[in-house]
Specification:
Strand order of the largest sheet: 14-13-12-11-7-10-9-8-15
CATH architecture of one domain: 3-Layer(aba) Sandwich
Shape: globular
CATH topology of one domain: Rossmann fold
Structural class: alpha/beta
CATH class of one domain: Alpha Beta
Helix content: 25-40%
Radius of gyration: 22 Å
Number of strands: 15
Strand content: 15-25%
Bound molecules: nicotinamide-adenine-dinucleotide
Largest sheet: 9 strands, mixed
Distance between the termini: 14 Å
CATH superfamily of one domain: NAD(P)-binding Rossmann-like Domain
């Protein structure tokens, strides 16, 4: 088996800078920069090359998967590749999926996740399930002495279910992380730190470009990055609209305006235009990401008015590309689980080792769902502003059926077999 080496599995190559930049936070970080006279732009530029990090001597976190489907296999592969985690057990109600998984990963399999958690010593449990099953299983897992629960997104259909999961984990002191998310890319956190240093002036506005036809399913990705660049300030109000029917509970595309309590304003574009990703608009520059690349533009020393197009210049080579979509097969025949997946696992490990929140917490996913609900409520009320938090916690967004139910059931056995075989080139694997 290939030795674990983060420089191979991480792809973003920023483990060290990520750790160090998150240790210095908020005001302290700005003071640190002023005192040292060091630019965070320079720090990012210098340290963005891929580095090998020696595997830690301590024993790895013991991870178990509940839901051995397409995405559950990716999580397991990520845990295998990360130097601080290993896969020790799995559970699934589908005997065929469970058998394939236990054969591929060489771990004990259980039909009942409760029996698995009662028998096995597990630090991290990952319920990677259809949304319908997720809340019940997350709450069930929280009854066991695990350190972390890392599930998929969307975490639930209703706000009440999301509240229950977040509260249960908080009560038990369990780290609750969610989703294989853009927000886990360290480049976003480094860029946010750079913006906080004030070198581009004040962050004033955001443009989020997402033409997705699901605000909760896929759209929670962009909404979570949007909140990050508004410094995760509370949302004061939203005005929104849905793409199809505001009175339907089914997930659908949505656009609108979001006003944060710190005055930052975001416009969510749902029409398909010649842009995707996010633009962070500062008083003296702009940060732009299309989820693949991360670019900072600042005002030229000679420029007088930052609003003129030719007055900005790019600071080149700051952040490595995300590597999104680069899914090569390794010599064992495994498809790489993706740099985003690895960034999520790194974030969870950081949370466990440093006592900091994961980059995408269950609470972040609850807030993404709440934003979707609020945008739709606005449309339902004649485009009126809707204040957050949303009072009616029974409100819900029903995810697309292939997220809500098992994909084998929705897409058929043949499609499903091909998907599962795609993880490993050797079909006997
Ligand atoms: N972040 C992303 O980019 C991304 C991408 C794809 C899917 N997802 C999310 O991942 C989740 C799973 O998707 P998938 O493609 O792996 O689905 P899947 O249908 O391939 O797998 C689901 C698995 O869960 C099992 N399962 C269902 N109920 C269970 C229960 N109560 N106990 C134990 N096992 C149970 C099923 O038997 C199946 O093996 C969905 O919520 C989806 O929204 C996220």
């Amino acid at each position: 088996m290939r030795p674990k080496d983060f420089s191979v599995v991480g792809g973003t190559g920023s483990r060290r800078i990520e750790t160090s930049s998150r240790e210095v936070s908020g005001q302290n970080r700005r003071e640190f920069l002023r005192a040292g006279g060091v630019s965070l732009f320079a720090v990012a530029s210098r340290e963005s090359s891929v580095e090998a990090v020696a595997p830690a001597a301590r024993s790895p976190y013991r991870a178990a998967i509940v839901g051995c489907g397409r995405k559950g296999t990716g999580y397991a592969r990520g845990y295998v590749l990360h130097p601080r985690t290993e896969v020790v057990a799995a559970a699934d109600i589908d005997p065929e999926n469970l058998e394939l998984f236990t054969r591929r990963f060489g771990v004990p399999g259980y039909q009942d996740y409760r029996e698995m958690l009662a028998r096995e010593k597990v630090d991290i449990v990952s319920p990677i399930l259809p949304v319908k099953a997720n809340p019940g299983v997350v709450l069930g897992c929280a009854e066991f002495p695990v350190k972390a629960i890392y599930c998929e997104k969307p975490i639930s259909a209703s706000l009440r279910q999301a509240d229950e999961m977040v509260e249960a984990c908080k009560r038990k002191g369990i780290v609750f992380a969610g989703g294989d998310m853009y927000r886990n890319f360290p480049q976003f956190w480094q860029a946010r730190d750079a913006l906080e240093s004030g070198e581009l002036g004040e962050v004033r506005g955001l443009n989020l470009y997402q033409s997705t036809n699901e605000i909760s399913g896929g759209g929670c990705q962009g909404l979570s990055v949007m909140r990050l660049f508004a410094r995760d300030a509370p949302v004061e109000w939203v005005c929104g609209w849905t793409r199809r029917d505001p009175f339907s509970d089914q997930d659908q595309g949505m656009g609108g305006t979001v006003r944060f309590s710190n005055g930052i304003e975001c416009f969510i574009h749902n029409r398909r235009v010649a842009r995707m990703g996010i633009e962070v608009l500062c008083s003296k520059g702009v940060f732009v990401s299309d989820w693949y690349t991360f670019r900072l533009f600042r005002m030229k020393a000679s420029a007088k008015d930052p609003r003129r197009r030719d007055s900005l210049e790019e600071i080149p080579g700051l952040y490595p590309d995300s590597g999104l979509g680069r899914r090569v097969y390794d010599e064992e025949g495994w498809r790489h689980p993706g740099t985003r997946q690895m960034a999520g696992i790194q974030s969870l490990v950081d949370a466990l080792e440093q006592g900091i929140p994961p980059r995408t917490s269950g609470d972040d996913l609850r807030l993404a769902l709440e934003l979707g609900v609020a945008l739709r409520q606005s449309h339902r009320q004649g485009y009126a502003p809707v204040r957050l938090p949303v009072r009616d916690r029974e409100l819900k967004i029903l995810p697309h059926i292939s997220r809500y139910l098992n994909k084998k059931e929705v897409h058929g056995e043949e499609w499903y077999r091909e998907q599962m075989e795609g993880w490993k080139r050797d079909p006997q694997g």
